Amino acid sequence: MQLFNGTLRCLLRAAHRPGKYAAHLSAAAAATATRAPQQQQQWQRHYSLSADPAPIAMAYEMFETPNTDTNKPPLMIMHGLFGSKQNWRSVGRAIASKTNRRVFTVDLRNHGDSPHANTHNSAGMTADIKTFLAANGISKVSLMGHSMGGRASMHFSLYNTQLVERLIVVDISPVSMPRTLDEMNSIMLGMQEVVLPSNIPLSEARQRAKQHLLKTVAADSVDFIMLNLRKRPDTGEFHWACNVDVLRSSLNGFLNYGRNIHNKGPFLGPATFICGSHSPYMNPDDWPEVLHFFPNANLHWLETGHLVHLEKPHDFIKLTTDFLNS
Predict the structure, then answer these.
(1) Is the pTM of this model over 0.90?
(2) What is the pLDDT of residues 166-176, one digit of tens each?
């Protein structure tokens, strides 16, 4: 897969069906469930939905043009795991120009320039979105989310149907996830193990970190991960922009997504799913169950891997702008 596929292909492939989530675990999920109780409890604590999650104020960029119609619901774009708002700048500008809407690209919690939190789950991201809308005086919004951001946007739409005008989900399903958590755990463990002296430039630090990660991470994933390596200007200390510790401790929460939405919604507004035909993130067999949550959705396939918006930008922008303008 291209730049990002190797990183994200390691999430769980097991299919979760409405009403069967508690019993339906793949062999990979069952193996995860047999981890040491202490680690399992830690994961459950980070992903627990029982407590009201404390929202964070997301960092964002806004795109508009002289023709922007502020009466139209704006579009909020949410990135995937290890991504950031900067990955969506060109798409955000293009959509703002072609739809005359304000477009916000945001850094989700524990990513980019947004604050780190001690939890990472869709409930927390839903709280963050709601806080963002209130802070910016937005009563209705359209949402676009890629991968992890797609799951956050679906979760928000199912829990807050009255606040969402339209929904665009990019290469992710609410029903199933690909591959195993063990691979993702290995990637994050490798990131935690990186140790770099503060007296070297960022370019050299990225090369050293890259060589370390190549021991366990697919080569086509490493360059994307390196965008998260930062150097503190005051101390020279290197750090990851994404909150690797909390992301790793929250991995098991990916198993809970289905059971946390199975009795919510449906979202009756217009929705479109744009997926890569060479990506494992949307199983065509899941589409009838996707329609259970989003009955007014349609599905588009582009000849891409997971990074649909980067591999086919013109086709992607046309699909999204046609949908928003319809």
Answers:
(1) no
(2) 999 999 999 98
